[in-house]
Amino acid sequence: MDTKFSVALHILVYIAETDKVASSEALAKSVNTNASHIRKITRLLKQAELLTSQQGKSGFSLAKEASEIDLAKVYRAVYPEKSLLNIHEDPNPACPVGQHIGQVLEPTFRRIEEDLMTDLAKESLADLIQKLYQKASN
């Protein structure tokens, strides 16, 4: 299963909360993966203007306040052109189901994706950080 979204959120929370240099290596240790995987995801986050880094300096910082980064922005950063739900291609046109299944499923799939983005937009990185501290204090 693809975990880019959860890794991207992990990276952003770590960067927001660390007082150390948030290098690819430090992030990789926190996520428990390799630094090249982290660099792929941080590249997407930089392209979406959620992260910044300075040439010649190690580490990343948030490009915006944590309260300004909603989860929908992060999702779209790591999946810029990916649909959550896809309709299979080339169903049998001679089949009564195959003739119409795409047209029947498309509005439902679109609504589900829109609902997901609406829900993700309601939660910010700051909200995740607050939940993290609440969980840690229990």
TrEMBL record:
PROSITE patterns in alphabetical order: HTH_RRF2_2
Signal sequence bounds: none
Pfam families: Rrf2
Stored Gene3D superfamilies: Winged helix-like DNA-binding domain superfamily/Winged helix DNA-binding domain
Record InterPro entries: Tscrpt_reg_Rrf2, WH-like_DNA-bd_sf, WH_DNA-bd_sf
Name assigned to this protein: Rrf2 family protein
